[in-house]
Amino acid sequence: MKLRRLGRTNIEVFPIAFGGIPIQRVNEETAVKIVKRAIELGINLIDTARGYTDSEIKIGKALKGIDKKVYLSSKSANRTKDGIYEDVKISLKNLGINKIDIYHIHGVNDWETFKKIFEPDGAYFGLLKAKEEGLIDFIAVSSHSNDILAELIKTDKFDVIQVSYNFIEIEPEEKIFPLALEKDIGIIAMKPMAGGVLPNPRLSLKFVLQKEFILPDPGIESIEELEEDVEVALNLTPLTHEEWEEIERTRKEIGTTFCRKCDYCQPCPQGIPISTIIRSESFLKRLPESTIRQGWFYDAYLKAQNCTKCGICTTRCPYNLPIPDLIEKNVALVKEYLGE
Prior knowledge:
With 340 residues, the protein is of the alpha/beta class. The protein contains 17 helices and ten strands.
């Protein structure tokens, strides 16, 4: 098994990272067992975020007594210098450590945010301060917009990026990877299974692992999932003809309804966060119950019920998705989940 170099950080990592979103959904004892087992199996980079409710805390408890080197990555969606600096300190406390290896500005998905983080009181300078004080080693950024991420890479201010990549979302192959490789920026591939939407998790992960310069970051919430992912990584082989045929079939089946989160459909006259609501299936699989029932996702669900099917979003979508129908379908899905 060959370790992967995470760009100019020169961190040598196991072929997959541990994605910390789903452990929000399990109790602390279970989460600790999963993280400890991941480390036993060789995973040496764990990714979490301030926004993942108690994920940092659970990971911190799992790390107690571990004598192996484990690299940690966390994130904050705070856009201000002081705000993200304070979030770094909270992350350190939650994780029970003195330094975090990689810290991301989380979800720079629109141009307003892009501009904000580089202002004198913006988040980038908060992470620069944290780095100068030895609280973090590397400054990183995540984004669901390939256009924005390309411009973030061009600033040459980030050592690591997180980008959505799977066999449906292949745009990064042309827009992101060449730019990042040119600057030797580490690439973490979030959502290698498209947030749980793709029907064959093993094949989905195998597809992403084919590119050795990428570190896939699958979300894991059970020992069974963990061991299956590790087995795929340890026994990686080229994709077969039959596997490529399955990928093409899945692309055709899902491609007509799969949202790439580009948000070209926005703004919605009714204020509906379209890319959020039409990805409800993924969120219902990954988010904690509290967020689904009363957090930002529930707010999106409430707004989505105001859809008038005006069709403006459909004219803007570069993938010709039937957005009003998808909104209606996903509102019904959430309503059923909530028992309303």
